[in-house]
Design a protein that fits this description.
globular, TIM Barrel, cytoplasm, alpha/beta
Length: 259
Amino acid sequence: MRPLFIAGNWKMNPTTEADAVSLAEAVKEGVGQDHAVRVAVCPPSVFLHRLDTVLSNSPIGLGGQNMHPEPSGAYTGELSAGMLVDVGCTHVILGHSERRHGLGETDAFVNKKLLAALKAGLIPIVCIGETLEEREQGQTEAVVGDQLDGSLAGLDGDQMAGVVLAYEPVWAIGTGRTATPEQAQQVHAFIRSRLSERFSEAIASRVVIQYGGSVKPENARDLLARPDIDGALVGGASLKAADFLGIVEAARAVTAERR
């Protein structure tokens, strides 16, 4: 059984270290030492070193929100995989739609980051998903398939088994709109089928595929109960400890039901 994985993407929030510490402490207290569900938080990079200390002696992973594929060099404003590891990161988000569509990141560039993250020992969370226009034109599978092919280029089966995917329909991120559990499951099943064709059914069955897009405590359980949805990449709801922990609790309930 694939473990459910709930990760919080704090994006450019909160604005102070004190608030970041308070949020992390509340999440740490709520999660406790329960390992039934994997949990990670991905704060702004300026808070990573401090939160590594806050989250010590906790099963909660720490993730960066982005990284550059090169290990060092003249890349103003960028962070390398080695830097993330050095400040305590275990995970890194790659290819989020806000970077793909807002900053022009290509599948090929995401792929370079992915290979560098794996080499450094980080667990990459690779985001894929279609826009509203692409969905309305019936292009969801074509778009998601192309993103998979480009972003995962050059990976072998062993590497793929260590990658987390996050299906995030662009039209559901920060909009309050959420894909129905049926819509999300359909795309997740397509993704797993694509992985099975490219790698093997055994590898595909091991890959964790999160859903992201206006996930809240109220809809989390219905989403997570679907057979191919293995967790959530949470945006806005991760900024309130009670909401984020409510999603974690929903994952725990689904995990208990599956045993």
